[in-house]
Structure formats: C-alpha cells, structure tokens
Amino acid sequence: MKMQKSQATSDRGNRSLSAPMVAYISRNLDGRSGADLNGHEAIGAMRKAGANVFAVTEKGQAGLLGGMNAMAEVAVFRSPRRSRPRGTEAASLRAYAGWAKRLIQAHHASSGFRRLEPEVAVVNDLGSHELWSRMESWRVKRSALVVQEAPSFYTQCFDPTRTIDWACHVMDQYTDLIFVSKSCQHQWSRYLPVGRRSRFCIPNCCREADALSLLSQSKAAVRVRLGFSQETVVGTCAGSIQPRKGQDVLIESLEGLCESVPRLRLCIVGPLFEPFVAWGEALKARVAESRHSDRVTFFGYRPDVMDIVYASDFIILPSRSEALPLALLEAMCLKTAIVASQVGGVGDLVEDGVSGLLFGPDDIGALIERAGLIADPQRRKRLADAASSRYWSEFSRARFYERYKGFLQATSRG
Predict the structure, then answer these.
(1) 176 HSE (CA, 13 A, CB side)
(2) Which CATH topology does 2-205+397-413 take?
C-alpha cells in the first residue's frame, strides 16, 4: 500500500476529536475529468465542515494531489487494480507478472485499510463502486454514492458493459445518494424505489480560483497567447471525445455552422480514451476531408482548458446525456456565452434565452440556428452576464460547501 501525505498532515491531529472520519473513494483523482475535479471539491468541502477526510484511489498523481488546495492535508491511499490480463495482453508473461504484483499490493492495501475506522464513506461515482466493494473490512455507519450520471447514460448504452439495472442494483447498496442536479434526481426517481434511502442534491461547482485569476486578465491578451485572431468568432466544445458528448453532431453541422457564423473557428478540446479512439479518429478524418477543415482544431487534452473557454466567444455543448456538465459551470463562471443541448441537468444551469441558448439533442438545424444567434456580440454579453450571476447565486463553491456541511450534519444524526 502506498500512502502519501503533504507536510501539512501533522496539522490533522489538531482537529476536533468529535469530527467524523470520512473515506472518499474515487477510481481516479488525477484531475483529467470532471468527476475527478468534483471529487477534489467534495473533499475540500467536507474538510471545511470539520471532517477528517482521507482518500482511496487507483489513480492520482502525487504532485497534482499535493498541489490542490482541497487535497493539501489529505492522506491518499492507493489501491491497485486487480483485473486479470485479457485479449492480446493475456499472452504476455510481463502482463501476468504485473497482475500478480497488483494482487500482492491489493492484499497489503486491504491489510492497511483494516486499521482505519471511517464513520462515513463517500463514493465519487458509479464507476468507483468496484473500488469501494474492496473495503469489505470496514463497518461504516453511512455510505453515500455521488450520482454523476443521468439515467440516459445507461438507457442509451453509452457504456455497453453496464445497464440501467446494474446501476440501480449498485445504488441499492448505499444508505445515501447524492445527486448533482435536481433534474438528475428526478429522472432517477423513475427507476429507484421510494423512501429506501436518504437523498441529497448537491450541485457541483468549478475551480473558482483559476476562473477569478483568468477574469483578472484581458481576454484579448489570453486570445493572443493562445493564437486566436481577434477577428474570428471562437466556439469551443470542451469534453472527452465520445458519442455521449456529441462531437459528431458538430462535425455533421459544420457546413451550416460556417454559413451561420462566417468567421467561426471551432475548437474541440478533450482527451480521447479507449474504447472511443477509433470513433474519435474517424471524426478527425471527416474533418480533414471537409472543405472547412481549416476552421476546426482538435486540441486533445489540455490542462489549460479554462484558458481556452475564457478566450472563446461561446462554448457549445452538443451532448446526448449529462447530469451537470462541468464545462458549463466553468463557462458561466468565466462569463463565456453558452449554446447547449437541453439534456439532463443542463436546464438546471441554463434558462433558454436568458442565460444561454438551448437546442434539442441531435437537432442539427436548431444547433445551427442557435449558433447564428450567439454570433451577435451584444447577445453574447447579455447571456454571459446572466449566466455568471446565476452561477454565483446558485452554484458557487460557498453554496457547495454549505450543502456538503448539511449532508454531514444529516449523516451524523443518522
């Protein structure tokens, strides 16, 4: 078992002995996805509320974890994967040696975990449930699952290995469910039994310190640094490249978008992971064959994605399923205008025509029409200002912390 602490962990002993011990379980904490970053914020919120928090993860860069304010005093335990080699990898002796090593590490990790006695366990998402299931020695009073996916993620088979029945079965194993949007909570109520467990709604926030730092800079200067012409209208789609995020809808709309927004530059920012690499490469090939190929840039994963969102004239989100997209929260905070598909929790963030422009999922005609409207600078400013006001009143880090404090108080009474 590997355990990493910052030098500040010695201060943990100064906390109140009555403060609850909370285990935060997340498959990844490396900051490369919205769920990872939301995990950092949740840890910070519970520490702010007085809880003693430690994290268990399979993946997380020590430098990043130690550098995040939320993680500065948090002990981070690594629990290695136990998955057996499959496919072509199974033929490799090195792969089997690695598998055996992970089994030994997992055994030692399990032995170490038995020394801990958390009162509450919070699991970052459904994908982290398998990691939580390894903590069989713990006898926590409360276990909470953060539901960061809408039911459509499973009903539309964006992950063919997991079904809606599987998701409901997993949720049934927790005493508490934390939904990241009211819409998400309402949609899941159609599938879950009534009254079986406590339910909380805690919408996510964004990295406000980074956003405020950017807002203190001239947008024109940031555009110059990123190589954006002041004359172009920059539209950015931020999110991992996969069918659920709908980047194919943008490519299908490219001809109409370029006519609707004559000076458009389309930026597609986000990592490409298996099993979607072939799908993403096919999208890039379609763009390369288009007569508008010079209008589109695939940036891949960028740690400075917030800089790109801030420098953009608008952000465009053509997703087919979302619970509460971090990309929109960041755009709201950064005063970047929004065009988005009305799915899942998007409507909780954006009021059509007031704080952004919405269109139906896969509705190419509506997307093109909305992009044409957002090309008007005055409309962009009005919508962006309204979205910023809504962020700070409803989705700020202060509100996020208040809600997690309420969650901890409720669990302590249980």
Answers:
(1) 22
(2) Rossmann fold (3.40.50)
Q: What is the DSSP string of 194-248?
A: TTSSEEEE------HHHHHHHHTS-HHHHHHHHT--TTSEEEEEES-SSGGGTHH
| pLDDT confidence bin for 266, thresholds 50/70/90 | very high
Q: Taking the domain 208-395, which CATH number applies?
A: 3.40.50.2000
Residues in Cβ contact with 95 at an 8 Å cutoff, skipping those fewer than 6 apart: 85, 89
Q: pTM for the full model? A: 0.86
Which is nearest to 215 in space by CA: 131, 297, 356, 309? Answer: 309
Residue 11 reports pLDDT greater than 50: no
Q: Which residue type does 304 have?
A: D
Residue of higher predicted confidence among 82 and 221: 221
In tens, the pLDDT along 16-26 reads: 435 788 999 99
- 2-205+397-413 and 208-395 have identical folds: yes
Q: Which two tokens stand for residue 111?
A: 């032995």
303-347 residue pLDDT tens: 999 999 999 999 999 999 999 999 999 999 999 999 999 999 999
Q: Where are the domains of the chain?
A: 2-205+397-413, 208-395
Q: How far is CA 140 from the centre of its chain?
A: 26
